[in-house]
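Trying the structure run again after the queue cleared.
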Amino acid sequence: GCFMTAWQLRMPIEDGMKVVVRATPKLTAWGKFSLTIQSIRPSGEGSIKKSYELLKAKLDSEGLFSPDRKRTLPPLPAHIAVISSTQAAGYADFITIINERWGGLTIEVAHTQVQGDGAADQMIRALEYFNSQQSLPEVIVLIRGGGSADDLAAFNDETLVRAIAASRVPTVVGVGHEIDETLADFVADVRAATPSNAAQIIVPDKRELVQQARHAVR
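Done. Tokens:
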């Protein structure tokens, strides 16, 4: 026997799926064994894909992916919030490119896990923190590099996807490689193909602007 509250189920499951369960065992005095489940998630490419499709259809039917609800980004934000693992290569690429393209920005960083148990909850808390500031950032960007479907599973977490949709601040999500698609990508105001592409989207290239200005005054 297994016991679990409904809110702990962060991705849909169906009979026949392979899942990973984290639970506390319980053995009564009269010998009845049961499990109190802390988390359950699909595992394996087939089960992860099926769960992804079920949740995608559910959220799409609610209008969370509608282009009508997406906001445009400011043309040159001075205050950017970043949610990522600061130890990840994707984060380093983002910071390098955004500094090369435009300097003098205020960049606040929330260091979080970006995969595994607890990653989605950490990113949700970071979103809530940035959305509760008195001086709001102009853009919130969530980034991580590539990985397997299992590695990127946190970005398909229903609670995280809803938190991105509820953000008061426009959001950019740059996760994985160009071919990777997560539900966080679909719900964000702007999807970036990669962390590097996120930097390119958020700020213009000052060198190109200088060249354009020089050409205009000739």
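The first helix runs from residue 45 to 61. Worth checking whether this holds up in the mutant runs.
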